[in-house]
Design brief:
Elements (H helix, E strand, L loop, with lengths): L1 H186 L5
InterPro entries: GOLIM4
GO cellular component, one term: Golgi membrane
Organism: Platysteira castanea
Length: 192
């Protein structure tokens, strides 16, 4: 019985030692578990915070994406409007360019026609001028001949005039002599 009692006492001590050992292990595991729980709690709070920030970032990104899409659509619409206006203006300018080109062609044809007409008119005027120059030269020659003849005739007339004037002076002198002779005869009583 003593042996059995000692044996049981030994077993009890072994069991208490084992229980103490298990209790220490349990306390260590509880402490470790507490640390894990606290770490998990911190991780969950951090994850929750990250999720909140991610959600806010996602919402901000969606707002930014929507605003960027609206701005892009507005810019696209403005660009289309500008393109339409420029296209319309280009058509108008192209039509004006074609009109100006046609007017230039018409003016060039008109210029060529006027140039040809001017050349013909210049040739006609040159011929008329040459003819008039020839007629003038001929007339000048004729007038020079007439002037020469008139000068000769004037010389002859001057000469004849001088002769007539000399004869007139001679006749006047003779008349004066006749008058003086007549007066002298009238004064003579015997001849009366």
């Amino acid at each position: 019985g003593v042996f059995l009692y000692n044996h049981l006492q030994q077993k009890v001590r072994n069991a208490e030692t084992l229980a103490q050992k298990y209790k220490q292990q349990q306390e260590a595991l509880s402490a470790q578990l507490q640390v894990v729980y606290e770490h998990r709690s911190r991780l969950e709070r951090s994850l929750q915070k990250e999720r909140g920030e991610h959600k806010k970032t996602k919402e901000d990104f969606l707002v930014y994406k929507l605003e960027a899409q609206e701005a892009l659509n507005k810019e696209k619409q403005d660009s289309m409007n500008r393109y339409g206006a420029l296209s319309s203006q280009h058509k108008i300018l192209k039509n004006q360019h074609d009109d100006v080109k046609k007017q230039l062609l018409d003016l060039q044809l008109q210029h060529n026609s006027l140039k040809l007409e001017h050349r013909k008119s210049l040739e006609t005027h040159s011929q008329k001028f040459a003819q008039l120059q020839q007629e003038k030269d001929s007339e000048v020659t004729s007038l020079q001949d007439t002037v020469f003849k008139l000068r000769e005739e004037s010389k002859l007339l001057r000469k004849a005039h001088q002769e007539v004037h000399s004869q007139l002076l001679s006749a006047q002198a003779q008349m004066e002599e006749f008058r003086q002779l007549k007066e002298a005869l009238q004064k003579m009583p015997g001849l009366r």
